[in-house]
Write the structure tokens for this entry.
Amino acid sequence: MSSDEQKWWLAPPGMKPEGPWTISEIRSRVESSPAETDWQVCMEGSVEWQPLTDLPAFQLERTPSISVPAVSMEGTELNNYLIFMHLSQLGSLVVPMVGFVIPLVMWLVRKDENDLIDLQGREIINWLIFELIAVVVCLVLSFVIIGIPMLIVLGVLGIVFPIIGAVKASKGEFYRYPMMFRVIG
């Protein structure tokens, strides 16, 4: 069995082990996680867990930013598509849920055409899921007053982050939304 066919269990921090997966499947699963995430792996059939970073087969090449040449027609068209993906989130200010549905549909339709669309689409959807969960928590906390200022801050961030993402997209750069967790890997 080649090293890439070897199956491993993956344990995200504080969660149940998942798998078993091949090395390439694990790489794609953890590549969008923060660099300091303490992933643990265990070879299928073994009971010994090890930090993912200790095994050479799992060394990930992380790129802090992804750039697309903005000079070609394809690059400009791609940048415009990404700008619209970010700014379409603001549609919820006019019609509820439009700011979730439009970026989701845009990502699903073209994610296989370009890696940057796939990466940025996953990041946008993760942000929207995180934001939805944060709104629910803030609504619950509003009964003890602290949730009201948190809702205001969250509303401001829901406008500011997509604008920052659109500015980055206009330069062909990947924008990582600051959040506590990512649901879609």
About this structure: The two ends are 27 Å apart (CA to CA). The longest strand covers residues 8-11. The chain has a mean pLDDT of 82. Residues 8-58 form one domain.
